[in-house]
Design goal:
Blueprint lengths: L3 H12 L6 H12 L14 H7 L13 E3 L5 H14 L22 E3 L9 E4 L5 H14 L9 E3 L4 E2 L1 H10 L9 E3 L6 E7 L8 H14 L3 E6 L3 E3 L14 E5 L9 H16 L4 E6 L8 H13 L3 E6 L12 H6 L5 E4 L3 H10 L5
Parallel strand pairs: 7-8, 7-11, 11-12, 12-13
Antiparallel strand pairs: 1-2, 3-10, 4-6, 5-6, 8-9
Helix pairs in contact: 5-7, 5-11, 8-9
Amino acid sequence: MTNRQEVYYALRAVLCGQPEDFPLFDMLFSTLFVNKGQGEGSSGDVSNADLLQETEPMESGRPDEGREVASQGAKPRAAEREATENAELQGAVPFSIREGTASENEPSAMLGVRFSPESPQQRSAAAVSGKDLDQMRQTAQALVASVRLGKSRRWQVMENGGRFDFRRTLRQGLQAGGEFGIPKWQGHPQRRPRFVLLCDSSRSMASYSQLWLQLGFELLQQSQRVEVFLFSTELRRVTNDLKVSPGGALPVLRDLGAEWGGGTRIGACLEHFVRSYGLRLLDQDTVVFIASDGLDTGDIERLRWAMRELHRRSAGVIWLNPLLGTPGYVPRARGMHTALPYIDTFADAHDAASIRKLARHLRLRR
């Protein structure tokens, strides 16, 4: 509480639900935390520049998310520090901070703020770690083996089917010159499950992102019907990126942007998955795994719609929450609370051992 910069960013993270709220928040913060100490002669109007001048630690930290700042007459020390911090944040935040010039009619200390739609110039990469990979391999094997979806309703040709296939037997006999010695049979084959893994790779899940990559990688080694996605503020399919590289090297995911290390918009990303991939990937044989803490900062109605569709169009929805094993944890977060009615299995997933326990308690609907 003694650092004004930390108070500013802490309150903004809690009180602002979207970037459009930042200007109103800046005005209120200036009024409450700056004007209080200005005395009775204060006019009550404090600009962003005044706030920056009174709070020296915030000179370089003025909004670095979702906007471009143009300043004139700034101190050289502040400008240098701003450039340094901007270079550090450029790889994680899809916005930029640049110096500009104010118009002649504006005071030299005024700040002009506008939205910057630019993507980050530096994109990140992530590699699958080999640490404890053998344990994750056993976990993936147990998980794939535990999924039993029953038999298909369709009749298919089988060597030991339960129904005699007269038509195929007749055709085979005619091709053999009238010898009907090999009967053909039909049966209901075992359904092959498809696994869809949707991994939350936002900043709040940074300590578990490597765990999700290992799980997706090993699932791909155990089954040919696996699809893996990463999401943060955007969604990206990484199935092909997680396949073994030539020479047997562990895969490296390159050119990661808004789907890695950003904010958390679970509803928007799940909605994107349903609309873009649902027709091809969602059916009665699909088991959907969502690995996330459920802390959604986006539109909650989009999350509700997406979860309803995933539940309706799949064999089961499994939610892996690394916070579930924390003593005293209650899923009261807005996103997690909204998703719970559409989840078939709610499981802890803070390490490979906890995910392996899921194989003994997995519940599906079809």
